[in-house]
């Protein structure tokens, strides 16, 4: 009996075997495998996120590049108009015109270096301080209403401009002839309102320049 008892005592119990496995790092190995799996999942998720961002940005860039390319690429068909279609030799009636929508009244040529004309005026003595010069159409200058009463787009036009107590009427007429789009004439009429007395006449100036519209200067 003593020997059997000694044999039973010498055999390790289940709890002892579990403790022994824990001491040898069994659960630690299982935890290491679980951490590696979780790290792999995170890496895959991060790669998917980065790939989605790259594809989204590249798609936006490709779409923008395609639109720009379409905007600057000429159509393969032949031009509807010849390169010199705006020259006085091809379209003399349209060479001169009121092609200046940003000024109250002006004309220009259809050419790469156009000749520009315009009208300036100012009322003196009506308000204290420096008189307000009228030339370009400004949102807050208080001029209006104004607009064309008649205009055929080619040879004549008449418009009215209301500037406070003054009413301006601008007219132009063209006639064909010559090698530079024909001749044209202006007429500007200024009338004060009948109910207002003693308004001094405005100062007026014609402008003429060659080049972009920003280079106007009184002549």
Task: Please tell me about this protein's structure.
- With 219 residues, the protein is α+β, with helices and mostly antiparallel strands.
- The protein has two domains: 71 residues; 124 residues, Beta-galactosidase, Chain A, domain 5 (Distorted Sandwich).
- Helix content is 32%, strand content 26%.
For this entry, give a set of tags.
219 residues, alpha+beta, Beta-galactosidase, Chain A, domain 5, 2 domains, five-stranded antiparallel β-sheet, 4 helices, 26% strand, elongated, Glycoside_hydrolase_63, hydrolase
For the largest beta-sheet, the strand count, sense and barrel status come to: 5 strands, antiparallel
Helix count?
A: 4
- At CATH level 3, the topology of the largest domain is Beta-galactosidase, Chain A, domain 5
Radius of gyration, in angstroms, nearest whole number: 43 Å
Give the overall pLDDT as a whole number. Answer: 80
Question: First CA to last CA: what distance?
Answer: 136 Å
CATH superfamily grouping of the largest domain:
Glycosyl hydrolase family 63, N-terminal domain
Family: Belongs to the glycosyl hydrolase 63 family.
Function: Cleaves the distal alpha 1,2-linked glucose residue from the Glc(3)Man(9)GlcNAc(2) oligosaccharide precursor.
Biased composition (Basic residues): 1-10
Biased composition (Polar residues): 206-219
């Amino acid at each position: 009996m003593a020997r059997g008892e000694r044999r039973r005592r010498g055999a390790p119990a289940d709890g002892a075997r579990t403790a022994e496995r824990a001491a040898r790092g069994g659960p630690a190995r299982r935890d290491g495998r679980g951490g590696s799996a979780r790290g792999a999942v995170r890496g895959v998720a991060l790669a998917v996120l980065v790939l989605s961002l790259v594809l989204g940005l590249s798609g936006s860039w490709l779409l923008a590049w395609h639109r720009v390319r379409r905007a600057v690429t000429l159509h393969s068909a032949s031009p509807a108009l010849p390169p010199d279609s705006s020259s006085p030799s091809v379209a003399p009636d349209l060479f001169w015109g009121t092609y200046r929508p940003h000024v109250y009244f002006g004309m220009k040529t259809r050419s790469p270096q156009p000749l520009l004309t315009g009208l300036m005026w100012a009322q003196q003595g009506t308000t204290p301080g420096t008189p307000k010069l009228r030339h370009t159409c400004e949102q807050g200058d208080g001029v209006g209403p104004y607009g064309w009463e008649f205009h055929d787009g080619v040879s004549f036009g008449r418009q009215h401009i209301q500037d406070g107590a003054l009413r301006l009427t601008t007219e132009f007429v063209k006639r064909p002839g010559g090698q530079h789009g024909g001749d044209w004439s202006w007429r500007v009429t200024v009338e004060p309102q009948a109910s207002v007395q003693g308004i001094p006449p405005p100062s007026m100036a014609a402008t003429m320049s060659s080049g972009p519209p920003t280079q106007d200067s009184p002549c």
